[in-house]
Amino acid sequence: MIVASIASAIIYRELVWIRRFLADYIVSWLLSLIYPLGVVVVPSALSSSTTVVERFSALYGIEMSLGDVYTIVIILTGMINVVSVIMYDIIGTLFTEFKLMDVGPMILEASSIARYAILNAILRPLIMALFSTTYLAPLLLFISGYKGLLEFLIIELALILSAVALGLYASIFATLLIFFTSTSRPWTIVSVLTSAILAGTGIYIPTELVPLVLRLIAFTTPVPQTCRALFAIAFKGFSQVLVAFGSVLAFSIVLYLGVSGALLKYAEFKVRKGWK
Amino acid sequence: MRRILHLLYIGIQLAKANAISYVAYIVSTVLWLVIILVPATLFSNLKEQALLTIVPGVYAMFVETCALWTSTEFLRWLVYTGLPDLFRECGLSIYHYLLSYSLVDAILASFASHFLSMVIASAYLGIDIGIAIPKDMLCIVLAIALAIPVYMLIGTLMGYLLVSTSISSVWSHVINILMFFGTVIPPNVLPNPWLALVNPATIVAELFRAGYGTNTLPLPYLFILTPTLIAVFTAFAKLIGQLCEKRIAKFGLEYRY
Amino acid sequence: MVKGIVVEDVGKYYVSREGFRKKRVIEALKGVSFSVSSGEIHALLGPNGAGKTTLIKILATLLLPDSGRAYVEGYDVVSQAREVRKIIGVVLDVSKGFYTSLTGFENLVFYGMLKGYSYSDARKRAREVLELVGLWDTGAYSRPYYTYSLGMRARLSIAKALLTNPRVLLLDEPTLGLDVESARMVRRLIVDLSKEGRTVLITGHNMYEIEQVANSITIMSSGRVVAHGKPQELKQTLGLLHRVVMVVKGGAEGLVNAIRSDLNVSSVGIDDVGEASRIVLYTRAGREEVIQVILGVLKKMGASLLDLAIEEPTLEDAYLAVVRGNDSGKHS
């Protein structure tokens, strides 16, 4: 009953924010489309589009056309959106709530920090991942017709599940930053972490090419597996990849839920004890 | 001259207080850029040449980015702390605030971002880091000389935009992305390379590229344009700074975070 | 009969980190005990750092006490926190505590839904309380919270506290920083709520305001209760002085000597005002006794009384006397 109340309150608040800042949200979601420009158009201008397609095919070991290259590059922008939106949303908003706006007491009066933060870490990513990747539907429809739309639905599922895992991952850092440190600028940490995860995943290049340090950071998240899964979905193969993706996701969700739950419970104990 | 030195001293002290934020900002920006830089270099099959064409643009782009966010910080986020009022009480404006940060942002931080981009991209691609050493130092010096007026111009322009409209930070990100064109994305990608001159930092990026021998605009034109642009950008920055101050005096400042 | 609030020997300490290893322990509450009857307005007074806000937060189940027990309408604030939360309304810092980009209405709907109301019930109830605090008719309910003045924020805080129709209200300085009109509105509201049978625990620094609304008072200092009772009883217990100003015609000196013999007079001052004399004296006697004695002496001596004013010690006098440990209570 309490869980349902908190969930409905969070959903209400999310929808109000989306409605109020819709223009800003749409702009921020579409900003990631600069990446296909940088990754395909720039090297094409420096050498040629044929070279780009050849290099892409050679790197991934699959024969591709320019259309395929654009498709996969556009799909992967969805992953960039999901990671940046979720990390900033979960950590930044939680910090603002508890440290700047002081909404903490309102939440504590109604429920527990742990319950609220976990539900927040699950519901917000669900909603934001859905909205922030909706632009893929018309693009994939344009590129691949109705098959593209079908592809979009599967991709969306993968992105949303990944977003939930990432939300729980982000809540671990949020808890540490808010309740166990006295940082006043968590955004610097969030921006480094988000960019490190994405750079460590490689996104447009195989993870094997990424330097080890960054790769290790990325592998603490399900993002590399999600990128592989998106690739597999785009090229309709590698069912083993999708099975591995599902397993990694399930394991990640359970692990992050456990760790963030434990941290949040202790954080709540600290808050209610008044310890700083 | 004394006032300029005082301002530079203040800027350095303020930057020291935010040293960790600076480092984090440089690291995160470079990592974000790496997501484009490395694939763009890899897929062009030109490795070193592609790297030396794209990465030098990071310096110029970072100069603009720093100007944009320094301006936003002064005219939006710091309003709550009263720092803008403190400056304005002493007859100083956004122009002076930018000037105080110019050394740190336009030289130190931007250079750091450029070299860090080189290091990380080299690590990804297995290229010798020695290529990061410029061949023509004159071009690099000219780039730096132009970078400061560009920084001031972008900062004051952004400042005027912030005080005369109620644009949110999302639009600042959009402007930030537009700064890619002509800097990280070289002018020759555009249908007409000279279109890139709409971005004031394009010449800075091209001069920096010229330091590595990979400029896409003709070098003689760059040499001719540079002194003129230094004077023009400096004058415009001062003028826009004054307009900005007049507007603040009339309408006040709004706190946003 | 179940008391509204019962606090039994509550202790609370804070642990604050200074640097990497050093810790500082601050004892905010040291064995605090008092009770509040149901339907009463009880004021909790004390200097900054006395522990008032800490106590309010404990009663609001936001903080756990380290020792002792506290009950709200018979429910233990620790073991029955869920039941306590259902019956309390809390106002903490009136200047913040809401989402800045949501409107006042949206903030209350969010809070209502958190508390278990359905969407439609939360909206309905939000409108009711916003009308009650005067934020609906002005249209302020539809503006983002960051545009609100302090007075409007205070009203919204009270609206939030009333949203769930609580039996007990915990108000921590609800009129802090408010203009005269807003403060008056809040005071009126508090009195009306108390008349409906709600228990109100209020803290504040404005003694005039507290004296107007509170039925009983607890004064705290350095984490302890130093005085407790009704305002009038407190003043009498502390033996504070009344200030009596008389303007008389004829025989001021004799009058004063006669009054001195009947009243316990601390000090006297006589000034000539034209043909009359202005006498100012300080006495510990009660108001009735002062009037009786003065009228009696005037009749005996046949003097003319032109003016009489008796100023009672204020709550501020009582508070200062208690907090400073000074029971002379002279007027400034």
Describe the structure in your own words.
The complex is a heterotrimer of chains A (276), B (257) and C (332). Chain A is mostly helical and 276 residues long. Chain A has one domain (2-272). Chain A has helices at residues 2-20, 22-30, 34-46, 49-60, 66-100, 104-110, 113-132, 136-144, 146-179, 186-201, 212-218, 223-234, 239-273. In chain A, helix 5 (66-100) runs antiparallel to helix 10 (186-201) and helix 12 packs antiparallel against helix 13 (239-273). Chain A starts with a helix and ends with a helix. With 257 residues, chain B is mostly helical. Chain B has one domain (2-251). Chain B has 10 helices and no strands. In chain B, helix 2 (19-44) crosses helix 6 and helix 4 (56-75) packs parallel to helix 7. The radius of gyration of chain B is 18 Å and the shape is globular. Chain B starts with a helix and ends in a 6-residue tail after the last helix. The model of chain B has no long low-confidence stretch (mean pLDDT 87). Chain C has 332 residues and is of the alpha/beta class. Chain C contains 11 helices and 14 strands. Chain C has helices spanning 52-59, 81-87, 104-114, 119-132, 150-162, 180-195, 207-213, 231-237, 252-262, 287-301, 315-324, and strands at 5-18, 22-36, 41-45, 67-72, 75-76, 88-91, 168-172, 199-203, 216-221, 224-229, 242-249, 265-273, 276-283, 304-311. In chain C, the strands form 3 sheets. A 6-stranded mixed β-sheet of chain C has the order 6-7-8-3-9-10, with helices on both faces. In chain C, helix 4 (119-132) packs across helix 5 and helix 9 (252-262) crosses helix 10 (287-301). Residues 326-332 of chain C have low confidence and may be disordered.
